[in-house]
Write a structure and sequence with these properties.
- The protein is about 40% helix and about 15% strand.
- The chain is built from 16 helices and 14 strands.
- The strands form 2 sheets. Strands 3-4-2-1-5-6-7-8 form an 8-stranded mixed sheet, sandwiched between helices. A 6-stranded parallel sheet has the order 11-10-9-12-13-14, sandwiched between helices.
- Helix 1 packs across helix 16 and helix 8 crosses helix 14.
- The relative contact order is 0.11.
Length: about 400
């Protein structure tokens, strides 16, 4: 029996800026193209009320990274217990009659601190209202630098194992997913449960439609965009700019400062202050979370997209910025040992890897990319079509809907 209705439950969906909105938007559009009814659920503090003609239903009080643990010894236990309880309360606010056994619930962003709540909630529904469930793990969160420094971080993997295995045992019509090969291997190892690899799709059709209309840049343009975070090497940028000033032709850096208000809490205020002082002919700053059209216009300007992301996290995690850049044939500079470099090499794209995760090494890699820009650009443009085909919303739904008939009917 086919899927009657798809419910997208995303605690990260709050505004139009960033990849959560863009990701959910294209998943929804592809389902509508297939003639499948869709319901979309986001946060209670929604800034966006609808995606196209589809209303966003406010459900979730918090994002998935919310932490409540205060004890340095048992903080993972505190988080797991209380955050799951809060998430369960949010889910119980939904009318069970919205759902049917023939429906699919897809949760595109989740951590261990919400999985057990899903198990409790879905098994509390009447059998006739209990849909198939698919969960996407996009973050190996205990590998994040700031978590890896904490005592008893190993408990996170234990909670993933407990929650996933408990859910699958109680609700066999469950698909566990991840969006990189590395994450699939990691979560299969943690949970001893099969994990389906799905792409991390991004819609770049607006760039493709206008690519032939742009004149070449007079000077090479290096773009950094997306979330302002130490995990993404944002703090490397001032030194990288300084080290590249002697290059000829001198590059122009265009930097999105998406989360200026949150920079102090991440120790990035001094970096923001330096970048503000650098503004001028060589450095442009673009402030705030951008609407999709403006975000894509920024990417379209790039000759090189720089991703100074830490291998400790992006050695497993996907990057929406990379997916977009690769899909439109941009040259990419990242650090060796990250998913973008691995994916770029697999598709024969123009990617250049830094030997170490340092500003100096990233600058050297960027200088090398600029010196070989025509060859690298040709490689990226040649591989972009195959990359787009494999990493789009159509491919995601083909794989996920194709996995459902293999599940137990229990």
């Amino acid at each position: 029996m086919g899927v009657r209705h798809v419910h997208l439950l995303d605690p990260q969906l709050v505004g139009i800026g960033g990849h959560y909105f863009a990701h959910d938007q294209q998943l929804l559009n592809e389902l509508l193209r297939r003639g499948l009814p869709v319901s979309l659920y986001g946060r209670r503090d929604l800034e966006v009320k609808a995606v196209g003609d589809t209303e966003v239903i406010p459900v979730f009080r918090h994002d998935i990274f919310r932490e409540v643990g205060t004890d340095p010894v048992v903080w993972p236990m505190e988080n797991f217990t209380r955050v799951n309880a809060e998430f369960l309360e949010d889910l119980r606010s939904l009318d069970p009659t919205r759902f049917s056994r023939d429906d699919l619930i897809y949760v595109p962003n989740l951590l261990q601190n919400q999985v057990h709540a899903l198990a409790e909630w879905i098994t509390s529904l009447p059998e006739a209202n209990r849909p198939t469930l698919a969960l996407m793990f996009r973050y190996l969160n205990h590998a994040m630098d700031y978590v890896a420094k904490r005592q008893n971080k190993e408990m996170i993997a234990m909670y993933y194992r407990f929650a996933v295995r408990d859910l699958v045992a109680r609700h066999p019509r469950t698909v566990i997913c991840a969006d990189t090969t590395e994450l699939c291997k990691a979560y299969q190892g943690i949970t001893s449960t099969p994990v389906v690899e799905l792409p991390n799709p991004m819609d770049v059709s607006a760039i493709l439609a206008s690519q032939g209309q742009r004149a070449p840049n007079a000077r090479p343009v290096v773009v950094y965009q997306g979330h302002t975070s130490p995990l993404r090497g944002f703090h490397f940028l001032p030194e990288m700019i300084q080290r590249c000033q002697s290059l000829r032709p001198r590059p122009v850096f265009v930097i999105q400062v998406q989360n200026r208000d949150k920079a102090p809490g991440m120790g990035l205020q001094p970096v923001i202050d330096l970048l503000d002082k650098m503004k001028g002919p060589d450095v442009e700053l673009v402030d705030g979370a951008l609407p999709t059209a403006d975000y894509l216009a920024l990417l379209a300007r790039a000759d090189v997209v720089v991703l100074p992301y830490t291998p400790t996290f992006y050695g497993h995690g996907s990057s929406g910025v990379f997916t977009e850049a690769a899909s439109v044939g941009k040259v990419v500079v990242a650090c060796n040992g990250t998913v973008p470099i691995r994916q770029g090499k697999e598709y024969g794209l123009g990617v250049v890897g830094a030997d170490q995760w340092t500003p100096a090494a990233m600058s050297t890699a960027l200088a090398g990319a600029l010196q070989r820009l025509p060859q690298l650009k040709a490689a990226s443009e040649a591989g972009a079509g195959k990359f787009r085909t494999d990493n789009c919303a159509r491919a995601l739904w083909d794989k996920l809907l194709g996995a459902i008939p293999t599940l137990s009917n229990a």
